[in-house]
Design brief:
Layout (H helix, E strand, L loop, with lengths): L6 E5 L9 E2 H9 L3 E5 L4 E4 L10 E7 L3 E9 L4 E10 L4 H17 L22 H18 L6 E5 L5 H6 L16 H10 L14 E5 L14 E5 H7 L3 H12 L7 H6 L3 H11 L3 E4 L1 H10 L6 H8 L11 E6 L19 E5 L5 E9 L9 E5 L4 E5 L4 E5 L4 E3 L1
Parallel strand pairs: 1-4, 5-8, 7-12, 8-11
Antiparallel strand pairs: 1-2, 3-4, 5-6, 6-7, 9-10, 12-18, 13-14, 13-17, 14-15, 15-16
Length: 413
């Protein structure tokens, strides 16, 4: 089975960013002595000669921001749109726990001091205007850190961010049809469908089912000139939808009474926007142009282009450039803690945060990073490891490890 294509980032001898190339061509350059390897994963090479970069192609980055952020990088060439990177940022989920732990430590320390009267007006940091909770701010900072890493390797023209799940402006001020709807009048717009499901709290309005497949049902059917509007749509599960189909006239009054006066809940959209303004502001400082899109538009394009649903594929679709091929390797981006938990001996070859190969039984090698170094006891100097799926190993001897590279703040595998 042919492995998905990987691209290598290329720099000239002055550090000028050039267009990416296939990994096979990069290894050929290294074997010929025309380049040196800077990093293996993802592959970065530096040529030993000067190149006049006359490539006028644009590079767009699409971000599907969420619990897991999808990233797609598409290069707009003269004859095609080339996907040069796709992956998922697996955000840290331990921030709230660590904040709670720190709070308890401080609470204990203060409790052991002499008694003083409780004060509640000295919480300056939590009363700052525009302050974000650490768990939300950390997620946005991880995205910015990743974009900063990309900017050292690529000449990025634009970053497009998925703003909300659906376009609120279109729903509240008037419906704006997509281009394909003039030909395919039978297809329901994804923007409207998402809004209907959200309005009905992702619950079947007939039987109350939640954890099941949900569909948007036309109360007045299309064959009777029923419209694709919020006032004519209701959420049903697939079983109830099948039961109602062909008998729409029997349920019209019941369904219209259920949705009468019910508006699209914008609170969810406001919650999704929490932290996005900070992200836009910080991205605007480091990239040329930041653009916004919505989930409804992304879903419509993904269906039109016949692309499978995933976070990384959504990142590609968000760029607005229809890809020629999608057979590309998918990376996992793992943000790491910048703060070291242990004292680092500068003479050590492998330190906390480094990426290593760990040899298991039967000579099987797995890729991990150093999570901690034991400081005392009979196993002092041994390492505790963690792989990128969250599995822990160790303590292990340094002799069973081989260093791949040093990771500072973020790891791409």
């Amino acid at each position: 089975m042919k492995e998905n294509q990987r691209y290598a980032f290329v720099l000239d001898n002055r550090g000028i960013k050039l267009s990416t190339t296939k990994e096979e061509k990069a290894w050929y350059k290294i074997r010929k002595g025309n380049a040196k390897l800077i990093q293996l994963k993802p592959m970065i090479i530096q040529l030993n000669y000067k190149v006049d970069n006359t490539d006028n192609s644009n590079i767009y980055v699409g971000l599907d921001v969420g619990e897991t952020t999808g990233v797609g990088i598409v290069q707009k060439c003269k004859t095609r749109n080339k996907v040069i990177f796709k992956g998922e940022i697996k955000h840290r989920k331990d921030v709230s726990k660590l904040m709670e732990q720190r709070k308890n430590y401080r609470k204990l320390r203060r409790a052991e001091k002499r008694y003083r009267q409780a004060r509640f007006d000295n919480r300056g940091s939590s009363k700052k205007e525009g302050r974000l909770p650490p768990s939300i701010k950390t997620r946005q900072d991880e995205i910015i850190r990743f974009i900063n890493k990309l900017l050292k390797l690529l000449d990025i023209n634009k970053v497009i961010v998925e703003d909300v799940s659906f376009d609120i402006h279109v729903l509240t001020s008037g419906y704006k049809p997509y281009k394909w709807e003039y030909q395919n009048t039978y297809r329901l717009d994804e923007n409207t469908r998402k809004a209907v499901l959200m309005r009905d709290k992702f619950t079947c309005q007939m039987c109350g089912a939640v954890e099941t497949r949900l569909e948007a049902h036309h109360i007045t059917p299309k064959r009777q000139n029923g419209e694709n509007t919020l006032d004519n749509l209701i959420t049903l599960c697939s079983n109830c939808h099948t039961k109602v189909t062909g008998k729409e006239d029997d349920y019209k009054i019941i369904f219209y009474n259920k949705i009468n006066g019910r508006q699209v809940g914008l609170r969810y959209a406001m919650h999704v926007m929490q932290g996005k303004n900070y992200l836009y502001k910080e991205l605007g400082k480091i990239v040329r142009e930041v653009e916004k899109t919505d989930g409804g538009t992304t879903a419509n394009k993904r269906i039109d282009w016949n692309i499978e649903k995933s976070h990384s594929n959504d990142g590609i679709v968000i760029t607005g450039l229809k890809p020629t091929k999608l057979d590309i390797y998918e990376y996992t981006v793992k943000p790491l803690r910048k703060k070291q938990k242990c004292k680092i001996d500068k003479e050590l070859e492998i330190v906390q945060g480094d990426r290593v190969y760990y040899t298991l039984k039967y000579r099987k090698k797995i890729e991990c990073y150093v999570n901690a170094i034991l400081q005392s006891g009979t196993l002092a100097g041994y390492y505790k490891l963690k792989d990128y799926k969250g599995n822990k190993y160790g303590p292990v001897s340094p002799r069973s490890l081989r260093k791949i590279g040093s990771e500072k703040g973020i790891s791409i595998i």
